[in-house]
């Protein structure tokens, strides 16, 4: 080792120190350590986040809270409840008319994935899971419409009930499409918004169609 | 690029499409690979320097940090290489590079047959329009299946609709591409997908109208006029890109037959039961689709039918 030949350590330089590498500033660390808090706090925090997003969908303003902290709890709950309500009344194979649970589930998630891929391919700046989150949360008006339809169908299945259901489902479909467009279209180049809005329109149209043509046994 | 080869690669010579999206995709991929190579070169040089540096400064506690850093870099590079190899949607990005005005123009153009068949016509290799048209056809088919009370035993309505439409688009495109390869036609796979996809616009319009207004004569008129126009357009474009009478005949005959027959199939397979006709035809045989009457709103269909009948009578 020719380079080390003239290295000499004098006696007053202490050869000691810390082997551990500092990970970063410790002062805000206590806030990020969530392992020690009680379970109720964790659940309440997640529930509050989900509830805040529901409010954002009901009153669609251009806020980025829905996009920044995405989560898929809300879409899962909405999808499961919609699929349960849309299930055909009887499991009898003779009258197997209603869409099955798996079919609704697959349509919603497959449709959301396709729309996300489409918006990414068109040059969108939104990430995959953020887009899934927005599309899933905007199914909420249609779930409400399904609930209303079921209640109306309890009273009877005539022309009047069909018109009521048509109006309700139509209004909720427009609300869903507008809400998701308000969040998703901003991430696109301005002259291509129509290209992103059309698949969203088709997606919610198919779900609305399934809701409108549902009849219990 | 193919210097000294006696076989001329038609795909590379095909620049009649105007803006060659395939070349843009290739260039993009090549540029990315060059960037990655440069980045690797720099990282490699940096590592070597740090390695030598390490020999002199090992006692300062940077050893741990260097090793962790190196492992992170190697891991990240491996993961990003695997990701870019298998999940690269950037390959498809050039095919989605369209404006809404262009899509609308192409939709309308797909119904107008070109007259000039001696000069190869432009086909835009774009996949957004065809993909959206296939999904629209799926939605329309779903509507048709619901209003015709079709009940599918082994499978789901949605699965059948998606399978039919995507199967037609991808399958017939591949088959026509194979035939075009045999008949020496100048067309690439993406262009074939795009051409057939835009040809489905006529199908969408026809089925949208005839699933709601149930008249056999109306359907036949739409089939001939609308289906015929879109078929003529596709046929004309293909003829302009093929040389030789036999080859033109094979290609165009096959495409015309498949396209028109598909529309016929879509209408009749999910047709609403018209009173009296099926009763006389059925007899003791059970049809493959069990039609059980459901509480579908009959009112809207009846209103539409009577309105159409009244208009037809007054005309």
From TrEMBL, chain A:
<dbReference type="InterPro" id="IPR045231">
    <property type="entry name" value="Yip1/4-like"/>
</dbReference>
<dbReference type="InterPro" id="IPR006977">
    <property type="entry name" value="Yip1_dom"/>
</dbReference>
<dbReference type="GO" id="GO:0005802">
    <property type="term" value="C:trans-Golgi network"/>
</dbReference>
<protein>
    <recommendedName>
        <fullName>Protein YIPF</fullName>
    </recommendedName>
</protein>
<feature type="transmembrane region" description="Helical">
    <location>
        <begin position="134"/>
        <end position="156"/>
    </location>
</feature>
<feature type="transmembrane region" description="Helical">
    <location>
        <begin position="70"/>
        <end position="89"/>
    </location>
</feature>
<dbReference type="GO" id="GO:0006888">
    <property type="term" value="P:endoplasmic reticulum to Golgi vesicle-mediated transport"/>
</dbReference>
<feature type="transmembrane region" description="Helical">
    <location>
        <begin position="162"/>
        <end position="184"/>
    </location>
</feature>
<comment type="similarity">
    <text>Belongs to the YIP1 family.</text>
</comment>
<dbReference type="GO" id="GO:0000139">
    <property type="term" value="C:Golgi membrane"/>
</dbReference>
<keyword id="KW-0472">Membrane</keyword>
<feature type="transmembrane region" description="Helical">
    <location>
        <begin position="196"/>
        <end position="215"/>
    </location>
</feature>
<feature type="transmembrane region" description="Helical">
    <location>
        <begin position="101"/>
        <end position="122"/>
    </location>
</feature>
<keyword id="KW-0812">Transmembrane</keyword>
<keyword id="KW-1133">Transmembrane helix</keyword>
<dbReference type="Pfam" id="PF04893">
    <property type="entry name" value="Yip1"/>
</dbReference>
<feature type="domain" description="Yip1">
    <location>
        <begin position="57"/>
        <end position="210"/>
    </location>
</feature>
From TrEMBL, chain B:
<comment type="similarity">
    <text>Belongs to the YIP1 family.</text>
</comment>
<feature type="transmembrane region" description="Helical">
    <location>
        <begin position="127"/>
        <end position="145"/>
    </location>
</feature>
<feature type="compositionally biased region" description="Acidic residues">
    <location>
        <begin position="34"/>
        <end position="51"/>
    </location>
</feature>
<feature type="transmembrane region" description="Helical">
    <location>
        <begin position="195"/>
        <end position="214"/>
    </location>
</feature>
<dbReference type="InterPro" id="IPR051521">
    <property type="entry name" value="tRNA_Mod/Golgi_Maint"/>
</dbReference>
<feature type="transmembrane region" description="Helical">
    <location>
        <begin position="249"/>
        <end position="270"/>
    </location>
</feature>
<feature type="transmembrane region" description="Helical">
    <location>
        <begin position="157"/>
        <end position="183"/>
    </location>
</feature>
<keyword id="KW-0472">Membrane</keyword>
<keyword id="KW-0963">Cytoplasm</keyword>
<protein>
    <recommendedName>
        <fullName>Protein YIPF3</fullName>
    </recommendedName>
</protein>
<keyword id="KW-0333">Golgi apparatus</keyword>
<keyword id="KW-0221">Differentiation</keyword>
<keyword id="KW-1003">Cell membrane</keyword>
<comment type="function">
    <text>Involved in the maintenance of the Golgi structure. May play a role in hematopoiesis.</text>
</comment>
<feature type="transmembrane region" description="Helical">
    <location>
        <begin position="220"/>
        <end position="240"/>
    </location>
</feature>
<keyword id="KW-0812">Transmembrane</keyword>
<dbReference type="GO" id="GO:0005794">
    <property type="term" value="C:Golgi apparatus"/>
</dbReference>
<keyword id="KW-1133">Transmembrane helix</keyword>
<dbReference type="GO" id="GO:0030154">
    <property type="term" value="P:cell differentiation"/>
</dbReference>
<dbReference type="GO" id="GO:0005886">
    <property type="term" value="C:plasma membrane"/>
</dbReference>
<feature type="region of interest" description="Disordered">
    <location>
        <begin position="1"/>
        <end position="51"/>
    </location>
</feature>
<keyword id="KW-0325">Glycoprotein</keyword>
């Amino acid at each position: 080792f020719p380079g080390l030949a003239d290295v000499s350590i004098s006696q007053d330089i202490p050869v000691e120190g810390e082997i551990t590498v500092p990970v970063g500033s410790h002062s805000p660390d206590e806030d990020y350590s969530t392992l020690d808090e009680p379970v109720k706090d964790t659940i309440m925090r997640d529930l509050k986040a989900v509830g805040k997003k529901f409010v954002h969908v009901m009153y669609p303003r251009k806020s980025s809270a829905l996009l920044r902290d995405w989560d898929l709890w809300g879409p899962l709950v909405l999808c499961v409840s919609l699929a349960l309500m849309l299930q055909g009344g009887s499991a009898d194979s003779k009258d197997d008319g209603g869409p099955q649970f798996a079919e609704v589930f697959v349509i919603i998630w497959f449709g959301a994935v396709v729309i996300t891929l489409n918006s990414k391919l068109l040059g969108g700046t939104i990430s995959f899971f953020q887009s899934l989150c927005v599309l899933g949360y905007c199914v909420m008006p249609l779930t409400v419409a399904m609930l209303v339809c079921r209640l109306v169908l309890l009273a009877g299945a005539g022309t009047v009930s069909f018109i009521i259901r048509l109006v309700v489902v139509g209004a909720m479909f427009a609300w869903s499409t507008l809400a998701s467009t308000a969040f998703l279209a901003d991430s696109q180049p301005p002259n291509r918004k129509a290209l992103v809005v059309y698949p969203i329109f088709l997606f919610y149209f198919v779900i609305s169609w399934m809701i409108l043509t549902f009849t219990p046994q | 690029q193919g210097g000294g080869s006696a076989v001329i690669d038609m795909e590379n010579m095909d620049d009649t499409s105007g803006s060659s999206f395939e070349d843009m995709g290739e260039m993009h991929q090549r540029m990315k690979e060059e960037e990655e190579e440069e980045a690797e070169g720099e990282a490699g040089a940096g590592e070597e320097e740090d390695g030598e540096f390490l020999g002199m400064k090992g006692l300062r506690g940077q050893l741990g940090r260097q090793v962790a850093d190196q492992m992170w870099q190697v891991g990240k590079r491996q993961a990003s290489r695997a990701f870019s190899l298998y999940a690269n949607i950037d390959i498809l990005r050039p095919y989605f590079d369209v404006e809404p005005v262009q899509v609308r123009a192409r939709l309308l153009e797909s119904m107008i047959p070109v007259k000039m068949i001696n000069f190869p016509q432009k086909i835009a290799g774009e996949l957004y329009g065809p993909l959206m048209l296939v999904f629209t056809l799926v939605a329309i088919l779903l509507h048709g299946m619901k209003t015709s009370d079709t009940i599918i035993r082994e499978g789901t309505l949605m699965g059948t609709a998606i399978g039919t439409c995507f199967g037609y688009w991808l399958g017939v495109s591949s088959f026509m591409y194979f035939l075009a390869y045999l008949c020496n036609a100048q067309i690439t796979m993406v262009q074939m997908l795009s051409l057939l996809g835009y040809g489905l616009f006529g199908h969408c319009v026809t089925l949208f109208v005839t699933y709601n207004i149930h008249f056999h004569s109306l359907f036949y008129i739409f089939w001939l006029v609308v289906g015929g126009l879109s078929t003529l357009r596709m046929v004309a474009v293909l003829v302009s890109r093929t040389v030789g009478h036999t080859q033109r005949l094979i290609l165009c005959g096959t495409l015309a037959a498949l396209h028109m027959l598909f529309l016929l199939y879509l209408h009749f397979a999910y047709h609403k039961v018209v009173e009296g006709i099926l009763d006389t035809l059925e007899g003791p045989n059970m049809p493959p689709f069990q039609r059980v009457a459901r509480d579908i709103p009959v009112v809207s269909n009846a209103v539409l039918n009577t309105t159409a009948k009244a208009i037809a009578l007054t005309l």
